[in-house]
Known about the structure:
This protein has helices at residues 2-10, 43-54, 60-70, 74-80, 90-109, 122-134, 138-147, 159-167, 172-180, 184-217, 225-248, 252-274, 278-309, and strands at residues 15-16, 23-24. The chain is mainly alpha-helical.
Amino acid sequence: MKPDSLSEQTHPSFALCHNCQAPTGGNFCQNCGQETHLHPASAREFLHEFVGHYVALEGKLLGTLWRLLFRPGLLTSEYVAGRRVRFVQPLRLYLTLSVLFFALLKFTHGGAIQFNDDAKPAAELAAPAAAGERHKPAAKKEQVDEEQVGGQVDGDIDDADIARWADRVPGLTKRWQHFEHMSGAEKSKVIGDGFYHYAPYALFLMMPVFALYLKLLYLGSGKRYGEHLLFALHSNAFAFIMLGAMTLIEHDGVEFLLWLWLLAYLPWAMRRVYRRGRRATAWRWLALMTVYTVTIGIGLLLSMGVGILTAH
């Protein structure tokens, strides 16, 4: 009995991990990483988990937001340098702020696009055109009639052409006609639903495009595509915070200051991360904003278009 008791004193006892059953002697399992000291499930434990791991009470979230908001480009530089565990992961940060921004936008603005129901009937709209047609010279009318081939005027595209093009996409004509017969309120709802449902996905899919633009603008910089993608996630996450703050704060002076900081932030961050001079950064920033603004516009229009095509 004595040797056994001595062995127990000199050799620490190993417990089995509740998750993978591997022997472990520390606070975390060396095999799967789960904590070895588990507390009974309770409301207090769930609250502790939420505060500790997701809100990052130890400073991870606060440190991330401080660098993101007030030290342009520093968060990206820290991550590239390998100091990562102290900050919220870039993809998680972007997705969280994206969800919060669009939820806030929907809650405060709802359907931003409105359609009128009091449009003039088709007969009234056609009346001025018919009146103008009656006053045209006869020779001109005959010339137009001779140029018409199958309902088309030379050099112009009429509704028949649009219909034939739409017929090439299965169901497109039917979907568009369905949308055209909706009331103004229904159209507004369809457009709004399409925007709020598909726009977050469209913007997320633009992150690789944003990174590609940076890759082209900084050819020869030695930076990998992944580093450009990291910068894209951080800079767009910052934009979500700024736009969300403008949505909440309806004060002209504050909004003006937020817009100034939003415009100044990106070139400042680009200088810190890519280490180029002011002129070299300025023209790259102008080129990036031009092409990316167009890209965003196309993406948002497509998201609303998909909303129309998927409307029931």
